[in-house]
Amino acid sequence: MDQEQLRNLLQHLTAQVQATDPGRVWESVDLALMDDEGISNVNGDFLDRHRPTDVISFVYEPQPGISAGFMGEVLVNVEQAAREGQRAGASPDSELALYITHGCLHLTGATDDTRAERARMRRTERNWLKTARKQQAVYGLYKESQARPRP
Predict the structure, then answer these.
(1) What digits encode the pLDDT tens for the residues 112-126?
(2) Which of 35, 44, 55, 122 has the greatest CB tally within 10 Å of its CB?
(3) pTM of the predicted model as reported, rounded to 2 decimal places
């Protein structure tokens, strides 16, 4: 994984998260890269779903004396992103960027429980990814996929 590119993408996305609700101050957003087994354990422990998933997000409220702002965690399944990206004919980078974007969008309170909510999230994901692509923040997340498209 290219940590610098992941950091660039996460910085872009956290700016989008902050812009969604400027009154909510974010102290930090952490990104955890997991495989099928690791995310299955978290999924089982916290959501009582004992299977792999693509992304899980957690939001932590500010704690007096501990944190000045909200903190977030986005856990992404890089193993599934690589597998699904290849299966769908997309790049693993695009799939991983989608998962990270989806997780960051959940930090804003967005849900995808209904068809309408899923459609709204997909539109926002496309917009956020479009601007991330313009900044070259979506490419080269997996070191073996360093190729970037020409502008």
Answers:
(1) 999 999 999 999 999
(2) 55
(3) 0.91
